Structure formats: structure tokens, C-alpha cells
Amino acid sequence: MPQTLVLPQPDDMHLHLRDGDALKAVLPFTAKQMARAIIMPNLKPPVVRVADALAYRQRIQAALPEGSDFQPLMTLYLTDRTTPDWVHEAKSAGIIAFKLYPAGATTNSDAGVTNILLLLPTLHAMSEAGLPLLVHGEVTDSNIDIFDREAAFIERVLKPIIKQVPQLKIVFEHITTAEAAKFVENASDNIAATVTPQHLLLNRNDLLVGGIRPHHYCLPVLKRESHRQALLTAVTGKFAHKFFLGTDSAPHSQHTKECACGCAGVFSAHAALELYAEAFEQAGALDKLAAFASQNGARFYGLPQNSGTITLVKQTQTIPPCFNFGTESLIPMRAGEEIAWSVVSA
Ligand code: DOR
Ligand code: ZN
Predict the structure, then answer these.
(1) Which of 4, 28, 125, 279 shows its CA 20 to 30 Å from the CA of 22?
(2) What percentage of the chain has pLDDT greater than the value 90?
(3) pLDDT of 195-236, one tens digit each?
(4) Ligand 1 nearest atom to the CA of residue 40, by list position
């Protein structure tokens, strides 16, 4: 009998679904494993107002496979123009959070915030409404080395925000460094973090040794092995309740990644839970996977715990070399390779 793990159904607390044909191509993967997902608003144009988010939610619901009860949880894209009134409107409409993209930090972040400390009234309104701020935690200063941008963000942006708005719930998204893990561990309970499968399983050698691997390029960029080890310790350690599943699965067509200036993003939704299972097994902590994947995020967001279950078995699966992506193709994480775990029923 292969080893079997039965977990409460997980949630993906950080997901890119895109729109149109791309949305139709990727949504079934997430809907098959996850009960809910927090949907990132970095479309072109970005999802800035409540009406944009509600229309986007309808397009997601229309693209769901027949009979699916997957629930998309909608976010708004914070801009320099977001007012406290827009926050109240968001709260009434059931929007779950606001996403901070520092302008220029990553894919479709041109409309992002130029100086978050000019938005204090808006942040206070979010704090009072209990709406979390989700941060892409990298500074964009061209003088700061790309490998140091997350650590610099803590000092230059995160600490000043927390000083000014101490009760604001903040999710430090897709953390990649020992500094970020330590910061979250030592912060108060209104500060939490998501961690992706690629940052738990890969380091920067997997990006650069033996040739550039564009399908391992994402932002924040993969870091050195000691940081990967720090993340594994964080998600399984004494303060593990502050960390939860957020894949940052971010599909881009093959040709926009395999080119002279390739897009950032790793697609992992096809095998999200299996990839996390490999990481937790590596850390000798499969018993901590359920809290990370299915419980800590819901608790942080004040959502009900999921009642369904999902079953993983220690059975090797081979990932297809590519998937259809509208009229293009999509190269998934582990394309053409094996993963040690499989989901057998959800
Ligand atoms: O690698 C990334 N891809 N990081 C992000 O922050 C955005 C995402 C995307 O939307 O492609
Ligand atoms: Zn993201």
C-alpha cells in the first residue's frame, strides 16, 4: 500500500488566472484541487474598482467546469488613486483584500503604487475594515541588486507601513528569503506570509546552472540554497501557523518565456499540492502540510474552514511536456518530469 495522506481541501491564497482563453485553459487545474483561491488583479488593464472585480468574478465563474463549487475570492489592485471610499465600497461588495504592486516591480505592475506612504488614509480605512494588504515585497530601486530587493523592502517599506498602521493585516506574498521568514516570525499575528512551491523546491542554481531555464524565472527571483532551507524551516517550524499556501501560479505562453526578455512566472497549478507534498516530505514534516495548505490561510482571512477532503498518495506521476493555452502552449513546472506524489480524489 503506498503512503496516503488525507487533508482538508486546500485553498490557494495567491493565484493568477488571467482572462479569456488563458483563463479557460488554467482554471480547471485549480478548481480540481482547491476549494477557494485568492485571485490576483494584475490583468491588463488592472482590476482597480469593485465593478471590475465583480465582472471578472463572473467571467471566472462562467469558465468553471460543470458542477464545480470552486470559489474565487477577489482582490483589487491598489493604485495611487485608491481612496478610503473605494475601500468601504470594496468591503461592502465582499472583496477580500487589496494587492500592492510597487510600480514596475513585476508583470503588469505599471499602474502600481509609487509611494505607499502617501496612501495612509487608504491603509487606515483597510485596517478599520479588516481588509488585508497583500504585498509584492520587492523594492524597485535600480540601485538595489535584484537578490536584495526583498530584504530592502522590509526595511524601506514594510516596517514604515506597520509603524504607521500597526493593526493592518498584511500578507507578505511569495517570500523568498531568510530575512522575510524571520521578519514574519517575529511580527505580530496580523502579519503572515505565503510561500510558493518553486521557492520551497528550487534555488537559483536551478535557474542558472548549465544554461538559463526560463521556466524557473519568476519574481521575486529564486534565491540561494540557504534561503530555501530557511523557508522550509519557516513553514514547518515553531511559527508555522503564520505561513500558508499561495502558489503564485502565473501562466505565460511558451514563446513569451523562451525569448530574449522572458516573462516572470512559474505555472504550478496543475500539481500544486503534489509539489508542496514533496517539499514538506523533504523537510520531514508531512504532518505539517494540512495546516499550511488548508487551515492557516482560512484562519488568517477569517474564512470558514473547508469541510471537504483531498487525498494524496505517494505514487509517481509524469507531468506532460506542455498544456494548451488558448492558441498557444504553456510549459508547466516539472514539464516532462516526475513528481513523487499524486492527488487521487478531491
Ligand atoms: O513571477 C511572477 N509572475 N511574479 C509576479 O509577481 C507576477 C506574476 C505574473 O503575474 O506573471
Ligand atoms: Zn503573484
Answers:
(1) 279
(2) 95
(3) 999 999 999 999 999 999 999 999 999 999 999 999 999 999
(4) 10
Burial pattern 301-325, b for ≥16 Cβ within 10 A else e, equals: bebeebeeebebbbeebebeeebeb
Distances (CA, A) of 251 to 24, 67, 209: 12, 24, 23
Q: Nearest 5 degrees, angle CA 291-CA 293-CA 298?
A: 75
**Minimum CA distance residue for ligand 1 atom 3:** 265
Kindly state if the Cβ of 219 falls inside 6 Å of ligand 1: yes
Ligand nearest to the CA of 257: 1
Distance from Cα 3 to the centre of ligand 2, integer Å: 32
Q: Which pLDDT band holds residue 110 (cuts at 50, 70, 90)?
A: confident
Between CA 180 and CA 196 the distance in angstroms is: 14
Show the cell assigned to 17. 488566472
Residues in the chain, overall count: 346
Residue 152 beta carbon below 6 angstroms from any ligand 1 atom = no
Q: Is the CB of 220 under 6 A from ligand 1?
A: no
Tens-place pLDDT, residues 18-64 = 999 999 999 999 999 999 999 999 999 999 999 999 999 999 999 99
Estimate to the nearest angstrom the gap between the alpha carbon of 228 and the chain centroid.
Answer: 16
Residue 109 has pLDDT above 90, yes or no: no
Question: What whole-number distance in Å separates Cα of residue 75 and Cα of residue 81?
Answer: 16
- Ligand 1: which residue has its CA nearest to atom 10? 107
Q: Cα(284)–Cα(279) distance, rounded to whole angstroms?
A: 9
Residues whose CB is less than 8 angstroms from the CB of residue 269 and which lie 6 or more positions away in sequence, other chains included? 12, 15, 26, 29, 30, 33, 247, 249, 251
How does residue 1 score in pLDDT terms, banded at 50, 70 and 90? confident
